[in-house]
Each structure stands twice: as structure tokens, then as C-alpha cells.
Amino acid sequence: MVDAPMAQKEDQRRPPRPKGGMITMPFIFANEATEKLAVVGFGTNMISYLTTQLHMPLTKAANTLTNFGGTASLTPLLGAFLADSYAGRFWTILAASLIYQVGMAGLTLSAILPSLRPPPCDGGKICQQADTGQLAILYLSLALAAVGAGGIRPCVVAFGADQFDETDPKQAAKTWRYFNWYYFVMGASILLAVTVVVWVQDNVGWGWGLGIPTLAMFLSIVAFGFGYPLYRNLNPVGSPFTRLVQVSVAAWRKRKVGAVADPRELYRNEEIDGPISVGGKLLHTKQMRFLDKAAIVTEQDAKDSPNLWRLNTVHRVEELKSLIRMGPIWAAGIILITAYAQQSTFSLQQAKSMDRHLSATFQIPAGSMSVFTMTSMLATIVVYDRAFVPLARRLTGLDRGITFLHRMAIGFVISILATLVAGFVEVKRKDGGQTVALSVFWLAPQYCLHGVAEAFMSIGHLEFFYDQAPESMRSTAMALFWTAISVGNYMSTLLVTLVHKFSAGPGGSNWLPDDDLNKGKLEYFYWLITVLQVVNFVYYLFCARMYTYKPIHVEKKLEGGFDGEGIGNGELGGIELATNKV
């Protein structure tokens, strides 16, 4: 029998369990899953709620939906700023989840209380639209949900990736797999939303249909907070935007200073850069050399103490260069989101006009058609992770199989095919459904292709932003991912508005009519998006060809100590140099 003092000494010698790792994933995934259950559970069927419950015209409802999606994807910039600068990711996620909870509660009340909705249509024909007060409650609730999403979306994915120590080779390889499974969990939650939650909304009522995700959101907040002792929390290191402005100002103030011949003469300071470069220092690159002037040490700089508005380190200059290099790749994702957004607007209206019966008594809710998107996306993620990556790894030697730039390119091609097919299906729907409604399963190919495209493009985009962003700006990088979604949704609103305006003809004809799709030319709209995507793909290929991976010097944990290594962080475990291009 071991006496108490000896056992106590043994416990003292035993090193504390390192924080982070796979044990934290259930708590983090629970928060993301319920956020998606809430927003998708409402968003997928939102156009039905706005047109049938609030009696909005179709185009106004479609634009309300895309505007909400755009705003909820724009607010992550604010959330990322707060997380990276002051609060840290954990507290930002927790506070944002509470705000989201209030917004969802407001939406649930608006669906339960008759006074917050206009009365039912008189005889099914005369419909009174929602008044200003009712719309105010709706928009306020949506605004709170959008603000809450702004704190959750950029931080949850980065917070989850933070749980793996990239300086440890055993954990670094898990990072890219984390993104696949993060998206898988998110997709599974969306699948639950577009099946169970949408069915409840259509068949039981909107009170229960919104109350379920509201309750799920509350439970996720409790679970996420419960996991706090296990998390690996990285402290905020000040405003990244301030650092970017400082580099820009310093480079401008020294614009007339001659460039140095040897980059080793540029300013470096381990003490200043230490808090923002725990995972490794960014190395000097030859691109955008005008920014290097911010790191040139003049006679005045040598005399005075370091002033970051006049003199910046190489690492901080390279932070700005990294974000600038990411810009063109970021922009390429916008049109794909514009194409994807049509699934919850016009594709849903297509489904409502088609035969959705599985039996004489049961028909598929129109909002549940995105189940094809989710199942194809989930299946693609599993096949990609379990079969495609091991095979590609043998051919390329890369741990992740192919680069995220190649993965995104595959997604672009499949998305082009999806909108092309959607146009032909719309022709078939109108021509073949004049006497007997066409089966809704004709829409399955376009939904499935969008799901496959998302498994390639969106996850590749996510990996790209996290991997290529400076270490201290990863919440900001995740915000850029959601900002691309935001701009894509706003682009959809603009495109719908312009097409509706300029395609109007005599007798009320229009490509995108307000009431009856059979009177329109929706196929032309789909093919217009297809052409835009082809042009965008050519642009992307040029940007990907010219892209330079960020170079970084890291110290990897080895047996008995550390080993310094310079790598292009775009390839985990590789030794890609800054000049390598894909």
C-alpha cells in the first residue's frame, strides 16, 4: 500500500496534462453545430416564412434573405477584430453566442405571437403585408442573430485549430484534417436543419420550428462554457489592423529612402515580435519591395527608441504582404457564393412548383431539397479524407494530398457545371410540366453538384485563409472567409435586382417575375451566372499561378529539444520556399 505522502509526491512530479487536443473538439463542435442548426433551420425555409407568413413579394423576400446572409457574413470582421485585439477567441465566442440566443428568441416570439405577424390571407387571395412594427421586430431579431454570428463564425474554426500545436509534428498533421471534420460536423448539422427542422416548420408550426434551434443554441452555450478548463487559449496580442496601418505609414514616410541591397540589413527585433510570432517568424520575400522601406533603419531611427510608426520589423512587413497576396484568391470565391445563394431562393421556388410527393400522403418540404446538397457534401468529405488524400499523397508527396489551391480549382469547375445543369433543368421543368407537374427529383443533380463543389471549394478556401494568414491574425483571416460569403450574397442581391429591372418587357414579362416562375426565363439567369463563373475561373487560374506561399521560420518540437526550419507554410511538413508557385 502506497502511503499518502509518497502518492502526493508522485502527483507533484507528474506533469500537468497539456491543454487542447482532440478532447476539446466535442465542446467546440457543439457550438458551431447549433449555430448552423439555428441559422439554417430558419434561413433554408426563410423565403417560405416571408412569403406565406409576412406576405412579402418574391423578389423582396429573396433580397431580404440574401441581405441577412450577407450581413451575417460581414459582421465577422468586427468579431475577429475584438478576438484578435482584446477579448480572445473563447470570450468572444461566448459573448456572441449569448447575443445570438437573444436574436433567436426574438424570431421565435415573432412566430408564436399573432400580433407580430399580419393576419392570414382573406380567402387565399387578398393578403395584407406585415406592417412597420412587425417588420421592425423581424429585422431587429435578424440583426442580433447577425451580430452573434459575427463573433462565432470567425472564432470557432480558428479556436478549434488553435487546439493543435503546430510546432509539434505529431499535432501539425491533424490541423488540415480538422478542417475537413469541422466542415463535416457543420454539414451534418445543416442536414438535420433542412430535414427535421424544416419538416417541423411546415407541418407542426413555426413556433416549434424556431424554438428547437433556439433551445439547441442554449444547450451549446452551456456545453462550450463547461469545456473551458480543457482549452488551449492563445492570448490576444493587440490590434492587427493597427500593425498593418503602422507598416503602411512607415513605408510611406520613407518612400524616398533608397532600398537596401541586402535584406539582412532590414530591421528585426525579437522582443517586439515575440508575442505575435510564437509559431515562427515570417521570412523576407521579394514581392512588394516598396513595403520593405518600413523596415529600413535610418540614422534617425538608430538614435531614437523604436517608433513603430516610423520603423517596423521584417515580420510585421511580411504580415501585410501576406494579407495583400491573399486578396485576389479571396475575391475569386465571391462569384461561387453568388451561384450557391440561388439554392435558397429561386431553386426553392422551382421545388415548390414541382411534384414533391413520395407517397399519396407525404411530400418533401421544398426547403428540404438542400438535403441533396448536404448529403453529397458529406459523402464527398468522407471520400476525400479516406480515399482521395491517401491516393494523392502517393503521387504528390504532400501530407494533405493536394494543395488547397488545387482543391479550390476543382470546386470552381464543379460549380460551373452545377449552374449550367440548373438552366437546362429549368427548361425541362417549364416544357415538361405544363400538364403534369414534373418530379422534384429533377432538381437533385444541381443540388448535389453544388454540394460536391462546396466540399472542394469552401474547405479549400477555409484552409487557405487559416494557413496563409499571419499567426496573430487568424480570426481576421476567418472573417475574410465569411466576408467573401457576405459579398457573394450581396452580389446575388445586386444581380437579381439588375436582371429583374433590365429584363422587364411589355405585358409584365420578366426573366425573374414576382409571382409565377413559369412566366419567366430563369434558365437565362442561371446561364448568366454560368458565364460569370467561367470568367471568374480564368481569373482564379491566373491568381493561383502567380500566388506565393508565405515563408516562415518555425521551431519544431523534437525529442530532446527544438529544430529550426524555414518552410513555406502552404505545405505542412514540406520545405516549400517563398518563390515556389502553384
Automatic annotation (TrEMBL):
UniProt keyword terms in alphabetical order: Membrane, Transmembrane, Transmembrane helix
Region (Disordered): 1-21
GO MF annotation terms: transmembrane transporter activity
Subcellular location: Membrane
Gene3D superfamilies reported in the protein's UniProt record: MFS general substrate transporter like domains
Cellular component GO terms, alphabetical: membrane
Main location: membrane
Pfam families associated with the record: PTR2
InterPro entries per the UniProt record, alphabetical: MFS_trans_sf (IPR036259), POT_fam (IPR000109)
Family: Belongs to the major facilitator superfamily. Proton-dependent oligopeptide transporter (POT/PTR) (TC 2.A.17) family.
Protein name: Uncharacterized protein
Organism, as annotated: Linum tenue
Lineage of origin: Eukaryota, Viridiplantae, Streptophyta, Embryophyta, Tracheophyta
